[in-house]
Amino acid sequence: MKSNVSAVVVSLQVGRPRTVRSREETDPVDQVWTTGFFKEPMSGLVWLGRTNLDGDGQADLENHGGPEKAVNVYPVEHYPYWTQTIELANLQPGGFGENFTIEGLLESDVCIGDIFEIGESLVQVSQPRQPCWKLARRWRVKNLALRVQETGRTGWYFRVLREGHVQVDAKLVLVERHHPNWTVTAANDVMHHRTDDTEAARDLADCIYLSSRWREKLKRRALSGIAENTSSRLDGPRGVDD
Length: 242
Description:
Number of helices: 7
Number of domains: 1
Structural class: alpha+beta
CATH class: Mainly Beta
Mean pLDDT: 90
Oligomer: single chain
Radius of gyration: 17 Å
Low-confidence stretches: none
Helix content: 10-25%
Strand order of the largest sheet: 1-7-6-10-9-8-12
Largest sheet: 7 strands, mixed, barrel
CATH superfamily: PK beta-barrel domain-like
Strand content: 15-25%
Number of strands: 12
Order of helices and strands: EEEEEEHEEEHHEEEHHHH
């Protein structure tokens, strides 16, 4: 199976971790934080390695980056929705901290384990993105991470199967599809909405192309019947709603 899809990388961003200084220490939104969220657009060829794009980095390597989260992907089609709902006129590609801003594919169109050629590289969908508190802190919208999670407009991650150069305007060519029933949308639904469905958790955990971290979480849920507490991920170290 090898088919062209009408999807393309419309913007490509990288960025090293940086420390953002506080303006008002009494407000958790303004406290000092270190993040790789801020990305700058790149033109020309960029090397995509096993763990990230050349020039990219993450501050929290326990929860971000690594082989199974090498590339953060976000559909450009979501930007008008967020521009209207959070009223940010300056929201541009890269505004959600993604490496690839793509056009032509949504969470309902791609499946866990899908393999795409992009430029010289070969990549595979590993898991949906789980938004964290840094997204909310970046835009000073306290419940933004939760809203992204609830709407399913999360984007997803690629692992890198073959390293190579990529660039803006590169097409996404679908090479293999292993699990047509496990779209990113369906995986999000099991993880975040059907939290008491242990059978669905077990079924998704059996998907060998899903990231190991998601599989472990789902296996624990299937055994215990208890979903993990997400407050620290969504609210941050002290919580942006404190």
